[in-house]
Design goal:
The chain has 171 residues and is of the alpha+beta class. The protein has helices at 16-26, 69-82, 116-125, 130-148, and strands spanning 32-38, 46-53, 60-66, 91-95, 104-109, 155-158, 164-168.
């Protein structure tokens, strides 16, 4: 896990007006943006929690703005493919037009929870807690095992859209 790393890219700044335009265009024409807050923990991308009013689907949505523009396509596709295997946030849209803001972005579901790093910090602060750590590690391993069950028709390297691009043979 990335610990004690520092952000090396500038934070993308999002204002309420731009957030409202994004929500109106891609999510719900009637929803009203109440607040926009930067989420902590992003080392490369800027993640915003958008609080909504007048919406039946969600009262919180995440807007993820990418510094590496090609990564947004790959991440959106990855969430889509993994959603059949593990819990992933619903992707409401992926936009790489840069018409509203000068960044590629994904608008996605906010999932309530505690980040893994906080769970591990809590367990470590409690001292000797091998049972608690074992449960966490078991859950991580179970999730990784589900992901590793994915199979493909041939061997190769993934393209940006997670299609097998450069194929090769394994003897």
């Amino acid at each position: 896990m990335k610990q004690n790393w520092e952000r090396t890219t500038e934070i993308f700044h999002l204002n309420v007006d731009d957030a409202q335009h994004i929500i109106t265009k891609h999510f719900d024409k009637n929803a009203k943006v109440k607040d926009v807050a930067i989420m902590s923990g992003g080392l490369s991308n800027s993640n915003y929690l958008i609080h909504l009013a007048n919406n039946d689907t969600a009262d919180k949505i995440v807007l993820r703005c990418f510094t590496d523009k090609s990564k947004s396509i790959t991440e959106a596709e990855l969430y889509s493919r993994l959603s059949f295997i593990i819990q992933t946030p619903t992707i409401y849209c992926h936009d790489d037009t840069q018409e509203i803001v000068k960044a590629n972005y994904i608008l996605m579901e906010f999932i309530e929870g505690v980040p893994l790093v906080q769970i591990l910090e809590l367990l470590n602060s409690q001292g000797n807690n091998p049972e608690g750590l074992s449960k966490v590690y078991y859950e991580i391993g179970s999730t990784m095992a589900k992901i590793h069950e994915m199979t493909f028709d041939s061997h190769g390297l993934f393209s940006q859209n997670l299609e097998l691009g450069e194929l090769f043979t394994i003897n």
